[in-house]
Design brief:
The protein has two domains: about 220 residues, 3-Layer(aba) Sandwich (Rossmann fold), CATH 3.40.50.2300; about 150 residues, Response regulator (Rossmann fold, 3-Layer(aba) Sandwich), CATH 3.40.50. The chain is built from 13 helices and 18 strands.
């Protein structure tokens, strides 16, 4: 059985795929003797991955190549819409089972021309909702006295557009909580000068920062913000702040910054179905194997665990329809939280507490996390908002400090 992984190994999105090789090697080692499938027979399993180079066109290309040339039985992807969506489109067109995580479910569905009434046949995801992220943000923002004017920094790609969508994005949730959004428009990924955005935020007196950008872009923006005197009392950024590489690039001024989309942490109380390791044990193994600090990208291992679970229940491994049937009957625990594809759909798809907003989607857990001075590593991230994940321990929010 062949499992293909579409992964950004290089380029601006590489932090999303940084744990994929570790995850692949760990799984191949665990399954060295094969896997018993739903047909009762033991089959060898081979996991391969291809680099997207952080380019959406190449993501589509490598996905198509793995399906047509490598003959993968199931395709996987994780991270931003620029990686997941084009790969999913190829899988849908070429009728190949596809699983994903760490994407925004609204971008996955609506950004690919889907709807509530017309689900996809082949492509599925354990995907976060902006409604979850916004609930975590509001929980954190409300703890700091501000004028509730939000500086909104978002990039001009599928992620940024999803974040600024007036119906399913962040604006309706933040506005309902009493916040006013100041959005200068979507910036071009790779921009080096953020003076225009910073000037507007200062002019409008914004005391809250949020949005979505890549780690390199936010690093540039934040350093320029400090230089130009933009010092919001509470500051967050989705996507960019989920990885220690961001903290290392920013330096000590990362202390206090919020990653509102914390969909994995070593303190999550789950066990990986493939290796039998807890979340903390996976983090420890990653640090031992790579000699690097654990990263939220480890949570992407969930897509492989889901694929292995699906294959273990596939009665006819030569029939993709049989694999599809196993996907739609999934009921398991991953390190991102439970997956129950048999559960009824949410009556309100945009509810932060819902788990099944769409036939192709199940949502993971969501926490809000903050960067603090560490004990083992210079920069460590801790959970400060667990309203949507009460089983995860949380610590007290630390105030921002500017020197």
């Amino acid at each position: 059985m062949k499992i293909g992984v579409v992964s950004p190994q290089t380029g601006m999105l590489a932090v999303f795929g940084i744990a994929d090789k570790w995850s692949t090697d760990l799984t191949n080692k665990t399954l060295a003797d094969g896997l018993v499938l739903g047909d009762g027979k033991n089959h060898p399993v081979n996991i391969i991955f291809r680099d997207t180079q952080s380019d959406s066109n190449r993501a589509a290309q490598v996905a198509g190549d793995m399906i047509a040339n490598d003959k993968v039985d199931i395709l996987l992807a994780a991270g931003s819409p620029d990686t997941v969506n084009p790969a999913a489109d190829q899988a849908e067109a070429l009728e190949t089972p596809f699983l994903s995580c760490f994407n925004i479910w609204s971008a996955f569905v609506f950004g690919r021309g889907g709807s509530f009434e017309k689900p996809f046949k082949w492509t599925f995801g354990q995907l976060l909702g902006l409604e979850q992220v916004c609930a975590s943000m509001v929980d954190i923002f409300d703890r700091t006295p501000t004028n509730k004017k939000v500086a909104f920094l978002a990039m001009n790609n599928a992620d940024g557009m999803a974040w600024l969508d007036e119906t399913t994005g962040a604006p309706p949730f933040l506005e309902a909580a009493g916040y006013t959004i100041v959005a200068p428009g979507l910036f071009t990924p790779g921009s080096e000068d953020f003076t225009a955005q910073i000037s507007l935020f200062k002019k409008e007196g914004c005391e809250v920062l949020t949005g979505a950008s890549t780690t390199p872009d936010f690093t540039n923006f934040w350093k320029q913000s400090l230089q130009q005197g933009f010092h919001p009392p509470v500051a967050s950024q989705a996507l960019a702040l989920g990885f220690p590489q961001a903290a290392e690039a920013i330096g000590p001024s990362v202390y206090g910054l919020i990653g509102p989309d914390g969909s994995w942490h070593p303190t999550f109380p789950f066990t990986d179905s493939v290796t039998g390791m807890t979340c903390q044990e996976l983090a420890d193994d990653y640090e031992k194997t790579t000699s690097s600090e654990w990263t939220g990208a480890i949570g992407g291992h969930a897509k492989i665990s889901w694929a292995i679970d699906v294959l273990s229940r596939t009665k006819d491994p030569d029939d993709k329809e049989s694999i599809l049937e196993a996907i739609t009957t999934t009921k398991m625990e991953t390190i991102l939280g439970p997956i129950d594809m048999t559960a009824p759909l949410d009556q309100n798809p945009m509810s932060p507490t819902g788990t099944r907003p769409h036939p192709n989607i199940v949502k993971p857990l969501m926490t809000g996390q903050q960067w603090v001075k560490g004990t083992k590593w210079p920069y460590e991230v801790v959970v400060v908002s667990n309203g949507l994940a009460p089983m995860v321990p949380a610590v007290e929010l630390q105030p921002m400090k500017y020197e």
